[in-house]
């Protein structure tokens, strides 16, 4: 196995070369080679943002999980990715799995799961500590929780640190022996010794067979438990992907561990979103990255043949409004705007096509009114033989993201409800080569998907069905990319 330094050097070579490829991303974090999954260890430490991620630098398979690291001060200029944790110890030999970070005065504390398959092929899980310094050097400190609490299987992973009332805690994903997903809580005074507090008692007794990446946030005085359950049944408007990622909002009693909460809500309705992680920055913003991918779906991504797969979402700011998480692209993303290539105001259309989108790297802001139309469609990545589509149905109050007319990649159809449409909708869309993120109605509903357009499939068209649609405002900017430096 290649060592961390070799991987880091090879990554740097990749960034020094001029990259030109249809599907390589401009402003989404991706790996130069191998497979990327969950964002890990998110934190701001000494003014710098640390974005670690799950990385198999060798192959496009869920094996050999390392931690990679990007750092940035402004979410535009990034360091080259560094490989910082490798699965080389007996307690993490089958994967340095997901975990989190917590910035202290003099160090960045990290916790992760050491995934081990023992000699009988049985899974073991160890919660391990590591420390990162201000130069991004990471040092392993070994196991801090070696035992799985009674009654749970070895799907015991993804410790997520937070602080409450002067004490440190981590939430961790678990599975009961009768195969039900759970989140467990640990506490500590010092990051070295962790005490098992118990299981979080939610009203979701039977809600998937495992909960991955649980994390407790405090937003506007409310407790928000974000987690990624596996095993929910697909419904017409919900749970359409193989696995889900969402949250419950309420109040956690730290003495009894009872969590009074509302209904589970999904964070994203596109084809590619899982295992998000969030942190609070020094400005008090709650910032989230998700993995723009899903486990067991690599076969749908044609980049696998080119030796790389998946990326992270753009950074999003989370706000809690009326019990609902609202997601907006981080304000820094505006710095990527180059030229305003389209600008319309108060026009009625049956169909409209852009002549100015030359590359799949743009941001679109569209405010429309139903007017006479019952349904409208935005066709993107439009080429001679293909397109992806977002449809908004004003009469039935739902939206659809449809990949099925794309030549390559997953062919899918994702349907989601839109509340309070009131005959108007705001669409804020970021198209980045092979990734699209759509924020509807100021971030109330988000749809993130990978699409793999052919060379030249970068058309954009808006079509209204059964009458005219009124465009109150349409702006499109071409976007530049993130910059990477040593
Ligand atoms: C989520 C997950 C985590 C695990 C990691 C391994 O995508 O399965 O539960 O720690 O990926 O890469």
TrEMBL record:
Keyword annotations: Carbohydrate metabolism, Cytoplasm, Glycosidase, Hydrolase
Catalytic activity: Hydrolysis of terminal non-reducing beta-D-fructofuranoside residues in beta-D-fructofuranosides
CDD domains according to UniProt: GH32_ScrB-like
Annotated ranges, domain Glycosyl hydrolase family 32 C-terminal: 333-478
Enzyme class, UniProt record, top EC level: hydrolase
UniProt keyword Hydrolase present: yes
Localization of this protein: Cytoplasm
Main subcellular location of this protein, as a coarse class: cytoplasm
Record InterPro entries: ConA-like_dom_sf, GH32_Enzymes, Glyco_hydro_32, Glyco_hydro_32_C, Glyco_hydro_32_N, Glyco_hydro_beta-prop_sf, Suc6P_hydrolase
EC number(s) reported in the record: 3.2.1.26
Pfam families: Glyco_hydro_32C, Glyco_hydro_32N
Record flagged with keyword Cytoplasm: yes
Pathway assignment: Glycan biosynthesis; sucrose metabolism
Function: Enables the bacterium to metabolize sucrose as a sole carbon source.
NCBIfam families on file: scrB_fam (TIGR01322)
Protein name: Sucrose-6-phosphate hydrolase
């Amino acid at each position: 196995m290649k060592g961390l330094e070799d991987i880091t050097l090879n990554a740097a070579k990749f960034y020094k070369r001029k990259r030109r490829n249809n599907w390589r991303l401009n402003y989404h974090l991706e790996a130069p080679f191998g497979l990327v999954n969950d964002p890990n260890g998110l934190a701001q430490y000494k003014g710098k943002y640390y974005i670690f991620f799950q990385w198999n630098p060798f192959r496009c398979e869920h094996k050999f999980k390392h931690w990679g690291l990007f750092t940035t001060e402004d979410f535009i200029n990034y360091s080259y990715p560094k490989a910082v944790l490798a699965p080389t110890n007996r307690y993490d030999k089958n994967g340095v799995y997901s975990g989190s970070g917590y910035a202290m005065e003099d160090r960045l504390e990290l916790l992760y799961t050491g995934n081990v398959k023992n000699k009988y092929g049985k899974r073991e899980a160890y919660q391990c500590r590591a420390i990162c310094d201000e130069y991004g050097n990471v040092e392993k400190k070994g196991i801090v929780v070696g035992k799985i609490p009674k009654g749970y299987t070895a799907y015991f992973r993804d410790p997520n640190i937070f602080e409450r009332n002067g004490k440190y805690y981590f939430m961790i994903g678990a599975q009961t022996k009768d195969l039900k997903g759970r989140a467990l809580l640990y506490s500590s005074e010092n990051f070295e010794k962790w005490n098992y507090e118990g299981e979080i008692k939610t009203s979701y007794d039977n809600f998937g067979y495992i909960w991955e990446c649980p994390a407790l946030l405090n937003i506007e005085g409310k407790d928000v438990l974000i987690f990624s359950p596996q095993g929910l049944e697909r419904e017409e408007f919900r749970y359409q992907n193989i696995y889900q990622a969402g949250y419950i909002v309420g109040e956690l009693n730290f003495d009894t561990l009872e969590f009074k909460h509302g209904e589970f809500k999904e964070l994203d309705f596109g084809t590619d979103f899982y295992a998000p992680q969030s942190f609070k920055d020094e400005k008090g913003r709650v910032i989230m990255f998700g993995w723009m991918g899903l486990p067991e779906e690599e076969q749908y991504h044609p980049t696998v043949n080119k030796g790389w797969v998946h990326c992270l979402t753009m950074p999003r700011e989370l706000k809690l409004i009326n019990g609902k998480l609202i997601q907006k692209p981080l304000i820094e993303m505006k710095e990527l705007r180059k030229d305003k290539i389209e600008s319309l105001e108060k026009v009625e259309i049956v169909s409209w096509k852009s002549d100015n989108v030359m590359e799949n790297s743009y941001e679109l802001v569209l405010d429309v009114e139903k007017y006479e139309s019952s349904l409208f469609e935005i066709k993107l990545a439009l080429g001679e033989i293909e397109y992806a589509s977002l449809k908004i149905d004003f009469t039935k109050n739902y939206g659809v993201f449809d990949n099925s007319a794309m030549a390559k990649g997953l062919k899918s159809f994702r349907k989601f409800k839109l509340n309070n449409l009131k005959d108007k909708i705001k669409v804020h869309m970021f198209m980045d080569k092979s990734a699209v993120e759509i924020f509807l109605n100021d971030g109330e509903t988000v749809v993130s998907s990978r699409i793999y357009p052919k060379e030249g499939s970068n058309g954009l068209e808006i079509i209204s069905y059964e009458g005219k649609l009124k465009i109150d405002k349409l702006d499109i900017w071409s976007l530049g990319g993130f910059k990477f430096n040593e």
